[in-house]
Amino acid sequence: MTPTSSTDRAAWRQTFSTATAPAIAGALATREPEAGWLLEAPDTDADRYHNPAIGNASGERFWLSVDEPTHRLTVHGTYGTMPDGRMWMPRERVRDAVDPSPTMSADKPADQIARDIARRFLPDYRKHLALFRADVAGATAFRNKTASLFDELVALGNGWIKADALNDARSTERTASLYNAPGITYGNLRVSGDHVRIEVSVTADFAKRFAALFAAAETL
């Protein structure tokens, strides 16, 4: 029965949050005991519009968007953020990817809702989650490579290369400045992965010595 007043709707939603949602989590835990599905505690009991969220120890998590007038619920998966702070979305990784968000009746028995979630949501969600984790691992490895090379160059600079205090956390680059190095008026250094870019303004004598390095290299 569709609620006819705000009081009825609030009561129905409260029942769903306190009884149906825990039962859904329990049914999923029974279906996949190794996953350890649990209903997350709401931020506050006073939040009438709290949408229940269910997660497990392996980091899989989804939340249930409940529509009071129609007694429908929609399942939404969560992934996470990339190392640059950007929210990861399936369509940005795979062309025309559709993030699974099945809708179903919230009045069905909890075990049936759990079956629908397992059948209609989890398979595609897990595929996307695996891609997200691979992207995070790749981006993290790239940042670690950048940091390792950058720190090595700063150490080799013997004080002439100083890391910039303000580096954008969203950027994959690390930057530094060259201060008062012999023959160098000013300069900057950028490292991204194993790529290094150095821009300097130098004295004429330094430029000549630098050019001579090429001639010396030809004889090696």
Averaged pLDDT? 89
Structural class: alpha+beta
Main sheet characteristics: 5 strands, antiparallel
Q: Rg from C-alpha positions? A: 28 Å
Q: Helix content range of the residues, please?
A: 40-55%
Number of strands: 9
Work out the strand percent. 15-25%
Q: How many alpha or pi helices?
A: 5
Tertiary shape: elongated
Distance between the termini: 87 Å
Identify the strand order in the major beta sheet.
1-2-3-4-5
Question: SSE string, helix = H, strand = E?
Answer: HEEEEHEHHEEEEH
List unreliable stretches of 5+ residues: none
What's the quick description here?
With 220 residues, the chain is α+β, with helices and mostly antiparallel strands. It has 5 helices and 9 strands; from the N terminus they run αββββαβααββββα.
Provide structural commentary.
It is a single chain. The protein is α+β, with helices and mostly antiparallel strands. The protein is built from 5 helices and 9 strands, in the order H-E-E-E-E-H-E-H-H-E-E-E-E-H. The chain has helices at 6-31, 90-93, 110-120, 122-156, 204-218, and strands at 38-39, 53-55, 61-67, 72-77, 103-105, 161-163, 174-178, 184-192, 195-202. The strands form 2 sheets. It has a 5-stranded antiparallel sheet, with helices on one face. The N and C termini lie far apart (87 Å). The model has no long low-confidence stretch (mean pLDDT 89).
